[in-house]
Write a structure and sequence with these properties.
A: 227 residues; 2 domains; three-stranded antiparallel beta sheet; B: 198 residues; alpha/beta; Rossmann fold; 38% helix
C-alpha cells in the first residue's frame, strides 16, 4: 500500500497561516490503513489545530472530514460542499489524493499534512517496510521475489557488493538498525528454489526511463475506455 | 509500579524537587480545577466506590466517566476533554497484567503517552494527562491519586484553552459517544426512592 507520515505540526501551521476556515480532509484508504491520515487522524489533527488556534487567540473554524478515496473524482464529489466552504484544505491523503483534490477544486487552496514516503507492506502491526519502487520494469521474477531496486541500498542489478556481511548491508537505517542485504536474501531463496544459476546471470544496466526518470508516466487501457 | 515515576507535588507550597525544573508559577488559592477521570468499570470505578464506603476524603474536582475498560479510550477522547477545557485528565485502569480484557490498560498507557506528545506539540503541558493503575480493592489508592493529581493541576494552573460556559464533563462524555457507560445511580437517591416505594 501507499504509506505516509504526518508532517511536524509546525510545518502544517506554517502552511495554514492565518486562514480562518480550515478543513482537515482525511482519506479512508491507504493512509487510513497505515494509521496516518484516515478520518480518525484527521479528527485528531483538527483538534490539535483548534487547541493551538485557541491558545494563540486566533478566531478560526476548523473542521474535519474524510473521503473514502481522495484519488478518485467520484469520491471527491461527496465532500465537495465542505471543500467549497473552506478557505484552505489540509489534506492527509497521499500525494496522489492531495493533487486530485487540488485539481478537482482548483483554484481552492489544498496543502499537505503528510509526507508520502513509500509503497510498503505492514510487516507486523504498526511496522511498514518498503517493498516496491514502482520502477515500471519488474525484475523480481529472476530475483526470487525480492526487489533489488528498493531492498538493496544501492539498487544493484548484480549483487551482492562487498558491503554485505553476515547477511547484513553495510548501510544502516537512520535509527542505526541493520538492514538485510537484499542480494543475500535473493541468494538464499534462489538456493531454496534450486535456481542458483540465476545468480550468475549478468543483468545489463536498468532502463530507468520506465521509472520516474522518463518524465510523468501515463497508462491507458483502450479496451476499458468508455464508448 | 508504573506510575511511581510520576512527579507529583507532595503538598502545595513545597519546594520543587528537581533543581533543573523551571520556576513554578504561584498557585492561585481560588483555582478549583475541573478534572476528568476515565475510570475502568472493573477496577478504578469500584475503587472509587470503596473509597466512598471507607469515608475517605478526596478532592471534589474530579468528575468520573465510566468505561468498560481503559482500552476503550482513544487518543481523540483524551484530546477532546482537553480541548473542551478540562484542566486535567487521567485514565485509571487495572493493575498491569490484571486487565479484564488482557491488555486494555497497556493500550491505554500507550495512548496517554501519545497524547502527551501531541499536547507538547501544541504547547499544552503534557502533565495534564496521566495514566494510573489500581485494583478494585485499592480505595485508598484511588483517593491518593485523586489528591495528588489535583495538587499537580493546581500547580499547573488553568487549562489555557478553557472557555466560559462549557460543561467539560458533558463534552468529554459526548466525545466518547457510545463508549462511555452510564453512571451508577447515586446511593442516596436510590435509597430515598425505595423509601417512597415502601
Amino acid at each position: 500500500m501507499i504509506t505516509a507520515e504526518r508532517k511536524p505540526l509546525d510545518e502544517i501551521l506554517a502552511l495554514v497561516g492565518d486562514k480562518k476556515k480550515v478543513l482537515v480532509a482525511g482519506c479512508d484508504t491507504c493512509v487510513a490503513i497505515c494509521l496516518t491520515g484516515g478520518e480518525k487522524e484527521a479528527e485528531i489533527l483538527a483538534s490539535e489545530l483548534r487547541i493551538k488556534a485557541e491558545q494563540d487567540g486566533r478566531e478560526a473554524s476548523i473542521e474535519h472530514t474524510a473521503a473514502i478515496r481522495q484519488c478518485e473524482w467520484e469520491y471527491l464529489d461527496m465532500i465537495a460542499d465542505k471543500v467549497k466552504d473552506a478557505d484552505i484544505v489540509v489534506s492527509m491523503a497521499c500525494g496522489i489524493g492531495i493533487q486530485s483534490m487540488a485539481e478537482k477544486f482548483s483554484p481552492a487552496l489544498v496543502v499537505p499534512a503528510v509526507n508520502t514516503n513509500m509503497l510498503g507492506m505492514p510487516q507486523e502491526h504498526a511496522l511498514w517496510l518498503e517493498r516496491c519502487g514502482a520502477c515500471g520494469d519488474c525484475v523480481i521474477g529472476e530475483t526470487a521475489g525480492i526487489c533489488p531496486v528498493v531492498r538493496c541500498s544501492k539498487s544493484l542489478m548484480n549483487g551482492p557488493c562487498g558491503g554485505s556481511h553476515d547477511g547484513k548491508c553495510e548501510v544502516t537505517t537512520p535509527e542505526k538498525e541493520d538492514i538485510d542485504c537484499a542480494w543475500h536474501l535473493i541468494w538464499e531463496r534462489l538456493k531454496a528454489q534450486g535456481r542458483e544459476e540465476l545468480m550468475y546471470v549478468n543483468r545489463p544496466p536498468k532502463n530507468w526511463s520506465k521509472s520516474s526518470s522518463g518524465g510523468p508516466r501515463k497508462m491507458v487501457r483502450e479496451e476499458a475506455k468508455p464508448v | 509500579m508504573a506510575d511511581a515515576d510520576v512527579k507529583v507535588p507532595a503538598a502545595e507550597g513545597e519546594a520543587p524537587e528537581a533543581a533543573d525544573e523551571a520556576p513554578k508559577k504561584p498557585v492561585d488559592p481560588n483555582f478549583e480545577p475541573e478534572i476528568i477521570v476515565f475510570a475502568c468499570h472493573y477496577c478504578a470505578y469500584a475503587a472509587a466506590d470503596l473509597a466512598g464506603s471507607m469515608r475517605l476524603q478526596y478532592p471534589t474536582n474530579i468528575r468520573m466517566i465510566k468505561l468498560p475498560c481503559t482500552g476503550k479510550l482513544e487518543v481523540i477522547h483524551l484530546l477532546k476533554a482537553i480541548e473542551s477545557g478540562a484542566d486535567g485528565v487521567y485514565a485509571a485502569g487495572c493493575l498491569e497484567g490484571e486487565c479484564h480484557y488482557l491488555k486494555g490498560n497497556l493500550w491505554a498507557r500507550k495512548r496517554v503517552n501519545h497524547v502527551k506528545d501531541l499536547l507538547a506539540e501544541v504547547g499544552i503541558e503534557p502533565e495534564r494527562v496521566e495514566m494510573y493503575n489500581m485494583s478494585s480493592a485499592m480505595g485508598a489508592k484511588f483517593a491518593e491519586v485523586a489528591t495528588e493529581f489535583t495538587a499537580r493541576i493546581k500547580q499547573l494552573g488553568p487549562n489555557p484553552v478553557k472557555r466560559e460556559g462549557v460543561d467539560v464533563h458533558a463534552a468529554a462524555r459526548e466525545a466518547l459517544g457510545g463508549a462511555a457507560m452510564p453512571d451508577d445511580p447515586a446511593p442516596s437517591a436510590a435509597t430515598s426512592e425505595e423509601g417512597h416505594a415502601e
